[in-house]
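Write out a sequence, fold above all:
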Amino acid sequence: MTDEEFREMISLTLTCRIGQSQVSSCNDKMDFFLSCCHYCPGNYDSYEDFKTLDASMNKFEAGHKTANRIFYLSIPPSIFVDVAQNSSKAASSASGWTRVIVEKPFGRDAQSSKELSEQLAEVLTEEQIYRIDHYLGKELIENMTVLRFSNLLFQPLWDRKYIRNVQIIFSEPFGTEGRGGYFDQYGIIRDIMQNHLLQIMALFAMEPPVSLDAEDIRNEKVKVLRSMRIITKDEVVVGQYKGRNNKGQKLPGYLDDDTVPKDSTCPTFAAIALFIDNPRWDGVPFLMKAGKALHKRSAEIRVQFRHVPGNLYSKNCGLDQEGLGNELVIRVQPNEGIYLKINNKVPGLGLSLDNSKLDLSYKSRYNTQLPDAYERLILDTINGDKRLFIRSDELEAAWNVFTPILHQLDAEKIKPELYPYGSRGPIGAHYLAAKHKVRWGDLDTDE
């Protein structure tokens, strides 16, 4: 591939967020950016090829007093170490800093993750390693701590005395779509829950940090992870989507994917009840649910508050206690927003109550395009801000929560419950929620 072909490929998805009056300026900026893009072929395991890369970068960096370098490892984990070693030894910056962004998966369990961390530590310092989880770069996730710590309204309510349960929900309306061979090595728990959803949970549940410094925030997240109860099999439901016909269209099942073994028990859906054994959250169920080939695309955090003691309106207004519950919903995607369900009187001469929303929709409130999560995280890497990146001890604590149940599921080859493509998932997820006296909040038809 030539430089021009490389730039042409990049230009197909390159955008510029500026006003219409500055279109010409935008074109100039894009042209300048593309002129800085160069392609250098080579093998991941070749020290000499990385020396060639170093020489190429030195040529373009000539004339700059300081030249910093970032290596983005969006590659199979089997070659992480080769690339880290060669880039560190043969292509580190001689005049500035060198940083390495590492994409998940960070191993398959606690042991493999530890081995990977130790191998990276042989050639890189912890300060150089940026373990990226793009969900932490999403606008609503970053806003979650602002919502909690800058609003007096929520601070006294954020504990076991007022919160009945917390639900962290992720759903995709499509299956593996030919990527089943890769997905089958990991499954939905490793792919989504152990990283994206657990990171959200740690941010949600952490104690107020001493400051907004990266280390102070990550210290509090580690405390949450280390306080979490080990997951047992009776708190887990796993599922796998099956094919069905929808208005004459054949929707394939997971096992219909040619890249998936026909006897695979890999879960494409999981629901898990987790608990944090500390004074703030003792006894509060945190329910996670994630799945592929479900009825809609969604990622949200739902906080269901306890019922009002001795509620005056619970009997004579025709609403059960569930209908009178307050709920805070942080909608991560799509249609980013935050809304709070409250009870109010329906206008009129009677006394009828309605559960309504105080709704902050980002699209209607802010006339701006939200930055992509990767944009934010790459910029943070350039600025050396590690608040939204995962530290090695944090990664270890996260794997310690999930490794026992993952090993048990793998060893016992627990057969997942089948659910139709495009449905809400297996019925077992509802039994798990009912066991903890919870109703999944995303079941409401008006949401």
